[in-house]
Design goal:
about 450 residues, alpha/beta, Spore Coat Polysaccharide Biosynthesis Protein SpsA, Chain A, 2 domains, seven-stranded mixed sheet, 15 strands, elongated
């Protein structure tokens, strides 16, 4: 049996090293570990890369993150998927226990759980959770749910809801067959009980489960649970067609004109994938020199990409026109404008930029060369881009000065780098990012 462990994470850097270390023996016996980050602002991703077989980014939310992990190539090669919270520890022989359950005819299952925390009644609460799970055939994420990959895919994965995704999936899996309720225990962190109080947490979860059973909306329940809705924004990707001699010309000395054009094609695809994975709002591809180019037509026809033409002029004129057109049509929707030169831009960074526009008029992600790889705004200021010397080292500083002059509040996110010169390609190759040949999934 080939086992894939899918772990959603968000801000787990402090305890993640210990969790990954505990999973090392399972990996040595053939299990693969896929960590899916939902937009951490600490060192979670860096820690995960040191101890996982794959690290992905996905829109925040356990359902979204676990579905993304289950769709990864390593997961599609597995027989069984195990969905494991980052604060939950498996028994040492979890793989063998799951294999025996599957060999016995089970399609899915879960472990018993032990809650580790300060309150003395937590062990009894875990006993009651396990008994209820056996009685109802419903499992929770804290119990380490596992399922045959073929069954999970046939059921369509987790529903795209911010809460109760484990209970909702359990209800569908029960129609396939009863769960294997393993008596071996996983140990889960009782920090929520410790932080908010044992009885408060018990009563809250009981009310939420009862409300869900009577048909309440999962999003409304998530707000009661303390879930903070994700900020949204429209993403405008400014892209040049992969035409030799027109795009990425500064890479031509190393790659040749045709090679530079192929590199541009990959950069556009990667940026579109990133924007779609972020899931923060509509994604529009602003095309130059013409929307009729074959590459853009293929993106429209095969992958449902919304392509619109760019105006003529320098980058300032094009960004200004994009912003003016957006706010003329959707004055209440924040806008993020990105180019295609930054392959290290992630869905989590786009989410951070959208979050920043909840409390600021503008947001920038500066680039190492003195420019920026993203600018976002929630209202229009026309003088922002006119007359700037594009390509100079002071572009970011000048834009920041204009934001201050326009009395706009703004935030700068962490510095990134883009690919402009041949030496940047070596830096990119050293990262070994997934290939952009994995085009876009249809809408």
């Amino acid at each position: 049996m080939k086992l894939a462990i899918v772990m959603p994470v968000l801000g787990e850097s402090l305890g993640l090293r210990r969790v990954l270390s505990a999973l090392l023996r399972l990996r040595q016996r053939g299990a693969v570990l896929i960590v899916v980050d939902g937009g951490s602002t600490d060192d979670t991703v860096a820690v995960a890369r040191a101890g996982a077989d794959a690290v992905l980014s996905a829109p925040r939310g356990r359902a979204s993150q676990m579905n993304a992990g289950a769709s990864h190539t390593l997961a599609r090669q597995a027989d069984v998927l195990l969905f494991l919270h980052a604060d939950t520890a498996l028994p040492p022989d979890a793989d063998g226990l799951i294999a025996r359950a599957m060999a016995g005819g089970a399609s899915w299952g879960r472990f018993d759980v032990r809650i580790v925390g300060q309150h003395p009644i937590l062990p009894m609460a875990a006993v009651l959770m396990n008994q209820r799970s056996r009685r109802t055939g419903i499992a929770t994420g804290d119990q380490g749910m596992f399922v045959r990959r073929s069954v999970f895919e046939a059921q369509g994965g987790f529903a795209p809801i911010p809460l109760m995704e484990d209970i909702e999936l359990s209800a569908r899996l029960k129609r396939v067959g009863p769960p294997a309720c393993l008596r071996e225990r996983v140990f889960t962190d009782g920090r929520r009980w410790d932080r908010y109080g044992f009885w408060h947490t018990v009563f809250l979860m009981s009310r939420l489960r009862a409300a869900w059973a009577t048909g309440s909306d999962a999003h409304a329940l998530a707000l009661r649970y303390g879930y903070r809705p994700r900020a949204g924004a429209v993403v405008a990707v400014l892209a040049k067609a992969p035409v030799p001699g027109f795009s990425k010309t500064r890479l031509a000395p190393l790659l040749g004109a045709a090679g530079a054009a192929r590199a541009q094609r990959g950069f556009v695809l990667r940026t579109l994938i990133t924007a779609r994975q972020a899931g923060i709002g509509p994604v529009h591809l602003h095309c130059a020199p013409a929307i009729s180019h074959r590459f853009f037509r293929l993106l429209q026809e095969r992958h449902g990409v919304d392509c619109v033409p760019q105006v003529e002029g320098d980058i300032g004129a094009r960004m200004g026109a994009t912003m003016a057109d957006h706010f003329a049509r959707a004055s209440h929707s924040p806008l993020l404008i990105v180019g295609t030169d930054c392959p290290v831009l992630t869905p989590a960074r786009l989410q951070q930029a959208a979050d920043a526009l909840q409390s600021h008029d503008a947001v920038l992600i500066p680039a190492e060369d003195g420019g920026y790889v993203l600018i976002g705004a929630r209202r229009l200021r026309k003088p922002l881009f006119a007359g700037i010397e594009w390509g100079a080292e002071h572009v970011y500083r000048e834009t920041a000065r204009r934001l201050d002059t326009a009395h706009m509040t703004w935030r700068s996110l962490r510095l990134l780098w883009d690919v402009d010169r041949p030496e940047d390609l070596e830096r990119l190759r050293s990262l070994r990012l997934p290939s952009a040949r994995r085009l876009l999934s249809p809408r």
